Amino acid sequence: MSAEQNQNSGFSPPAGYQQVESRVFGVSVYAPQPKKTEIDLARSFACPNCGASTVYDVSAGGISCEYCGYIAPISAQRVGKASPDFEFTLETLSQARQGWGVQRQVLHCDACGAEFSIAPDTISTTCAFCASNQVNIITIPEETLRPRYLIPFKIPPEKTLSLAKDWLGKGWCHPPELAGETILHRFYGIYLPFWVFNAHVKADWRAQVGYQQTYRHYNASQKRWETRTRTVWKWEDGQARLDVNDFLVSGSAPKRLSHRILNKLYPFNMKDLVTYAPDFLAGWQAKAYETTLPEAWETGKKAIREEAKNACYRQIPTSQVRNFSMNAVFSDETWRYILLPVYLAAYRYDHKVYQVMINGQTGAIAGSKPVAWWKVWLAIAISLAPGALLTLIGLPLTLVGGAGIVLITIGIILFTIGIIIGFIIYQYAQKSEVP
């Protein structure tokens, strides 16, 4: 129908349809209206008694007001590991809710680019990720998926600094001033985004497996029988099955949040999962995911394949394997989008930024610390000194008698051991400092 005929006849499209652009001049085209994504109206949390802002209180396990003492429980159901999963379908993505479901504002760091959600009345001048004060508040549309579940904070904020002080003071190769009061001033409680995957994996493998075979051989030149060993290679195959449950993949970009440190906070107890409620975010920061579901699943599959490969290798009775191949088939893949509690702090030392994280559920702590390299080089020198000293003493004694050769031999052995010890010391120090 042309546009002119459409107007003259008074034609109106059926319910649920709308007019769209036509590629043919004078012809009207109608298509189904796109489904609107469900976005709940945001709300704020004001105390019903005094009107002040309320926050989620870890100790009380509910919403509380620090001014008048008002406390209210949160109507969230504890679901634990029995929380329902989503299947990998486009339908589940389109039906998922979006936004936080509560009035939030986004703090953007100009130094590292981090963005995290804060309460509307929060005044913050420091980035929790890089300790920069170049932050400003921006407005972004609520287009990210809403988490369905979270684990609430259990470690109270007032305990974080004592945990960090004890941790910073440990280790012989670090500057002694790390345990001082001026390094870390506060931790930021942030709900970090995670993708959780479940799947069944069937891995078929095939490889050449080497077996040691002993046989007797007659040595004609020595006129005697000798025992020798050779490797016999056999083609073998098998199948390993894996049930992957609660496999975590961080939704945060590694360029701003160290995944090496974050992985040290595992495990989280998934039995404490509760249904998401905006009340848990009152007075706390939250971060939306930067790694999308497809990207996270690719990362997860790569790590799960490595676990499947290890499971296949465990079925092989010897350590000699070559020409190994594996075909891993995934089935019953499901996912959940959740928030997990993490305390985060960043501090500067000698013009470098270091991150410290605390598991907000268990209290596990991890991070990076600067290294007093003069201590490391001194320790390496001490480990090398005995071997080097004995070798130097033995050199002139070789002119006198055989005692020098013995000392040189012992010195070389001790020097080699010192090199190994020194390498271990260096690797330990380097890993402590790398974020």
From TrEMBL:
It comes from the Bacteria. Keywords: Membrane, Transmembrane, Transmembrane helix. The chain crosses the membrane at residues 376-397, 403-426. This is Uncharacterized protein. It comes from Candidatus Brevifilum fermentans.
